[in-house]
Amino acid sequence: MVRLLIFMGSPRIDGNSDILSHALITGAKNAGAQTERLPIAHMRISPCMECGGCDKTGKCIINDDMRPIYRKIEASDVIVVATPVFFYNITASTQAVVERSQACWIGKYVLKRGKLGGKTRKGILLCQGATKGRLLFDGILRTIRYFFDAIDTDFKGALLYRGIEAKGAIKQHPNALREAETLGKLLATGADLESYTPLRNK
Ligand SMILES: Cc1cc2nc3c(=O)[nH]c(=O)nc-3n(C[C@H](O)[C@H](O)[C@H](O)COP(=O)(O)O)c2cc1C
Asked: Mutate which of 18, 165, 177 to test ligand 1's pocket (most atoms within 8 Å of Cβ)?
């Protein structure tokens, strides 16, 4: 059974990221996946304090809600990050999770440990912003790729939506919820994602 972990990075519960997350979860669950949604903006997760505590062990020493999440990442087969654009970036709570993957980066590149949980995961980004600029998601895509690399996760692509602002506005988008639900199903069944055209993977 595919285990899917979703970082819901918006502070707005039932907002656009959350609605997209639930659509993806519905598709994945209906196709047999085990899913867990983490509303990280409402959890106690510090950014990296650059204390060096992970330098020799690859284990973060900060004792907060991130602690059990490392094990959840290891156990997962699919990681989904769902975040709105905040100032052309991911939200602060999403950034905190990203920074805390530094312990995994140390494990991988300094301590040369094997893959986290002995496997490579699939990684997906769900993201929307209010504006419509061409470069709206470029910085975010780069950050998420590097996050995924640190946690042995192959970036498989992103569902990106422009012009989405008000709480729930994503429901008015002609395709978004259906695309997220279909993606959930494809992830749960291990289907080839290359030919799923709504996914942007560059
Ligand atoms: C603090 C803050 C910063 C934002 N910055 C941007 C931005 O730089 N570019 C943009 O297009 N939208 C920006 N937005 C709009 C949100 O990305 C948009 O409303 C999104 O749909 C919210 O998703 P949510 O309901 O999941 O929180 C910002 C919103 C907030 C609250």
From this structure: 165
